[in-house]
Design a protein that fits this description.
Blueprint: H1 4-21, E1 25-34, E2 39-50, H2 53-67, E3 74-82, E4 89-95
Antiparallel strand pairs: 1-2, 1-3, 3-4
Helix pairs in contact: 1-2
Length: 96
């Protein structure tokens, strides 16, 4: 089940990857694929590049909350961070 705890776990994994790569991201995004194979993305650009789960998690959880009202069954959920758009993530983590 997709909830804030899952998002926080993925944010920690994402930030470990960013830190290992010596990278940061200004745009934090989520991608949700529903069981009907439709894909929905949400992203927010923050003021300064981040690589800490404490900074990424709240943004990702808020993006999820904005979208949650239209949930069907989720088949996969991705969280990522990058330079300027969700199509250009420096790193990402997915839960199925």
């Amino acid at each position: 089940m997709l909830n804030a705890d899952v998002v926080q776990q993925l944010a920690r994994r994402l930030c470990e990857t960013l830190t290992t790569q010596g990278r940061r991201g200004r745009t934090i995004g989520i991608k949700i694929r529903l069981d009907d194979f439709s894909t929905h993305t949400r992203a927010r650009t923050v003021a300064a590049p981040v690589a800490a789960a404490e900074q990424v998690s709240p943004v990702a959880v808020e993006l999820l909350r904005r979208f949650a009202a239209s949930f069907q069954r989720v088949s996969s959920f991705t969280i990522g961070a990058g330079d300027s758009s969700e199509s250009n993530f420096n790193a990402f983590c997915t839960a199925r």
